[in-house]
Every structure is written in structure tokens, then in C-alpha cells.
Amino acid sequence: MLKEDRYRLILDVISQKDVVKVSELAERLNVAEMTIRRDLNALEEQGLIERVHGGAKKKGTIPYVELSHVQKQTINVEEKKHIAQKCAELICDHDIVFIGPGTTNELIYDYVKAENVDVITNSITVFNRFKHDSRYDVILIGGRFRERTGTFIGYFANKLLSEIKVNKAFIGTNGIIDTRVTTANEEEGNGQRIILDNAAEKYILADHSKFGVEAFCTFYDVKNVTAIITDTKISPKIEEYYKKWTKIIK
């Protein structure tokens, strides 16, 4: 078994049980206890777990409290602008793109240079940024409106999303923990998962403060995305860990 595969399995077990013994991991992975101890030491150095006597425990996650859209607009503004610019650089002439809800996503408009782009969104704020620009054909996905994030969700939104194929999807997140991409609302997460599955290129937008944060609902796995787009303040250890699973753009 490759070392990276052992790491993934160890993290999966710890995420389920919170605390696990070296002997149990050795038995489950069918390797020597010495190997497990080395793996646990490496994972602790990366800041992903905490060692305890005879084993390891889940690293204390940062609790997530969902803020309103207006509140989020004032947080990590420069980092969000950096991420938005990186997203815009990936958009080419004649692309079909989905831009999800979020205060980072709505900034993408400020940096896009491509023309004749089809922009699809379920975010009223993203729609409002693009709607008057003749370079773009904009499709707003309707449904039940979630005022807190300015997002259309639910059955009707998901039905439309399931019928759409896009070149690129840009999706924000409330937090990334282990390899899980999380959000505060399961209905928003359902829509995000559908469009990611229907995108040729899948991008998760997360500034450095989102790593280690676990929101209510897991909607995707970083192993299945094209890249995580983040900012230059990401911890080197965190960056190194996620590079095992996907590309990091910063």
C-alpha cells in the first residue's frame, strides 16, 4: 500500500472515531505498528491530527458560524480579489462556465477579459454583476430563494442544474477539512455537487482561512476536483498535504 493511501485511510478512520489506537490502525491497514507510528508523526507535522499516548485523535476543528452575505463581503477582501483574478484567468473566449454563490465568486467579473462567454449561475449577486455586459450571455438558475446567501436552491434549481454541462465550474466553500469540501446548507451543497459532476473542469475557491474549517454538510471531495484556488497565505504544510490530492492554484 502506498504511503499516501495509508494517510488517507488513517484520516478517514480518525474522522469517524475521533480517537484511535496505533494497534487498531495497524490491524485495519495490515501493516506494522512502527509504520503507523511514523505515519502518525508525519500527519501531526502536517497539522492534520494530534498525537496522544498510544495513538492519535482528530485535530480540533474550527467551528463554523454562517455569516450573512453582507458580513462576508468585509472579510479577507484582498485574498478574495486574488482568488477571483486567478479564476478569471482560467476563463477563455467562448467558454461555458458556472459561477456559484459567494463573495469571492462575485468578484470574478472585475477581472474577466474573455468574450462571448456563457455564464450560468444560481446566485443573484453574480447575476447582477454580469447581466448588463454584452460580452456575456447570462443564465440565472431559478428556484427557492435563500436570502442569507442570495442563492436559488431546491428541487427546481437542481432539476435545471442536472441538465446543464459546462466547461468550468467555480464553486466556493465554507470550509475544507481533511479531503472534504463543506458548506453550511445541505440544499446549497446538493446544487453544488450536481454542477461539479457536470463540469469538465471543477474548481473549488477557498482562501487560506477556510482550511481546517468544517461546516455542516460535506458536498464534495478534493480528490475529485481539478484544482483548489486559494491565496498566497496558505500554510506550506497545508498546501503540501492537498497537493497529494489535487492541484493548488495560488
Question: What is shown here, in short?
Answer:
By secondary structure, the chain is of the alpha/beta class. It is 36% helix and 27% strand.
Q: Give start-end ranges of low-pLDDT stretches.
A: none
Q: How many DSSP-defined strands?
A: 17
- Please state roughly what percent of the residues sit in beta strands, choosing from under 5%, 5-15%, 15-25%, 25-35%, 35-45% or over 45%: 25-35%
Number of helices: 9
Q: What string, H for helix and E for strand, traces the elements in order?
A: HEHHEEEHHEEHEEEHEEEHEEEEHE
Q: How many strands, which pairing sense, and closed or not: the largest β-sheet?
A: 7 strands, parallel
Q: What overall geometry do the principal axes of the alpha carbons give?
A: elongated
Mean pLDDT comes to: 89
Q: What is Rg?
A: 19 Å
Helix content: 25-40%
Distance between the termini: 31 Å
Structural class based on helices, strands and sheet pairing: alpha/beta
Strand order of the largest sheet: 7-6-5-10-13-16-17
Q: Explain this structure to me?
A:
The model has no long low-confidence stretch (mean pLDDT 89). The chain is 36% helix and 27% strand. The chain starts with a helix and ends with a strand. The chain is elongated, with a radius of gyration of 19 Å. A hairpin with a 2-residue loop joins strand 11 (175-177) and strand 12. The chain has 250 residues and is of the alpha/beta class. The strands form five sheets. The protein has a seven-stranded parallel beta sheet, with helices on both faces. It has a three-stranded antiparallel beta sheet with strand order 1-3-2. Strands 11-12-15 form a three-stranded antiparallel beta sheet, covered by helices on one side. It contains nine helices and 17 strands.
